[in-house]
């Protein structure tokens, strides 16, 4: 479990990115931080592994103050996946994945063998192991990024808009892969996005943020959809535009889900 207690982050120019945040992130679930630019979601994420230091307040992981830990050791114990994969261009795929375990003292041969297994986990062909990142598609690079994030077998995986730079079809595939991986591995995932549909798809807990890292509403997707806490939340999730007001019509003998304007959005399965 990750807990923020009255955490504030103020940058040297006076900007308050996060203002007195209180938040509990449950273990072995996916918590999605969602909001527009300036809502502090990435700052909150990066405070967990001390890539950004808090100004005040307390942050604990499983009851332990993260500021009592060596920051380098802390970062190596937490998986991190960023938007553009962040792969080392001069290293082959297998060596990119093996990097953190080797830094943690794992022998190169063992780290590379474990990396091959992780390629299986994220749905990549092992034949790609000896290629360089520039020889992969954007979606393949992001899968390698996820594999690298999992390489040290961390309890916590931080994901900062990891699917934002790929096309919609690949993004949908990567989202489903993450759902599968989480079902199999049960990590504590903290995921940042500006896309509310992605948040609802992936999140066990969704934390909708306003400017300054203030929580507008936190809960399950069903909680937020069924009872938006404010006009801001209703607008953000599209409830005020009928975007979420769906109904069922029978077309050609099948139950078709349509929106408020009658546009088909899906088919009900029996």
From TrEMBL:
Its EC number is 7.6.2.9. Keywords: ATP-binding, Nucleotide-binding, Transport. It comes from the Bacteria. SUPFAM superfamilies: P-loop containing nucleoside triphosphate hydrolases (SSF52540). GO terms for molecular function: ABC-type quaternary ammonium compound transporting activity; ATP binding; ATP hydrolysis activity. InterPro entries: AAA+_ATPase, ABC_transporter-like_ATP-bd, ABC_transporter-like_CS, P-loop_NTPase. Residues 2-237 form the ABC transporter domain. Signal peptide: none annotated. Belongs to the ABC transporter superfamily. This is ABC-type quaternary amine transporter. It comes from Subtercola boreus.
């Amino acid at each position: 479990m990750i807990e923020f207690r009255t955490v504030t982050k103020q940058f040297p120019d006076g900007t308050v990115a996060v203002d007195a945040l209180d938040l509990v992130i449950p273990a072995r679930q996916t918590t999605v931080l969602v909001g527009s630019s300036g809502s502090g979601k990435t700052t909150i994420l990066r405070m967990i592994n001390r890539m950004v230091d808090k100004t005040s307040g307390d942050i604990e992981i499983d009851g332990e103050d993260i500021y009592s830990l060596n920051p380098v050791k802390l970062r190596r114990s937490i998986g991190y996946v960023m938007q553009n994969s962040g792969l080392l261009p001069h290293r082959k795929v297998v060596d990119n994945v093996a990097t953190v375990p080797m830094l943690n003292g794992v022998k190169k041969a063992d780290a590379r063998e474990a990396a091959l297994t992780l390629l299986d986990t994220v749905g990549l062909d092992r034949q790609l192991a000896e290629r360089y990142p520039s020889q992969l598609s954007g979606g393949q690079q992001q899968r390698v990024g996820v594999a690298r994030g999992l390489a040290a077998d961390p309890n916590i995986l931080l994901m900062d808009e990891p699917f934002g730079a790929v096309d919609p079809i690949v993004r949908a595939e990567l989202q489903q892969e993450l759902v599968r991986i989480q079902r199999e591995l049960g990590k504590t995932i903290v995921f940042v996005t500006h896309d509310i549909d992605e948040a609802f798809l992936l999140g066990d807990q969704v934390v909708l943020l306003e400017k300054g890292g203030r929580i507008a509403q936190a809960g399950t997707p069903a909680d937020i959809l069924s009872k938006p806490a404010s006009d801001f939340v209703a607008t953000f999730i599209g409830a005020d535009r009928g975007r979420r007001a769906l109904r069922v019509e029978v077309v050609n003998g099948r139950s078709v889900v349509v929106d408020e304007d009658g546009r088909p959005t899906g088919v009900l399965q029996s």
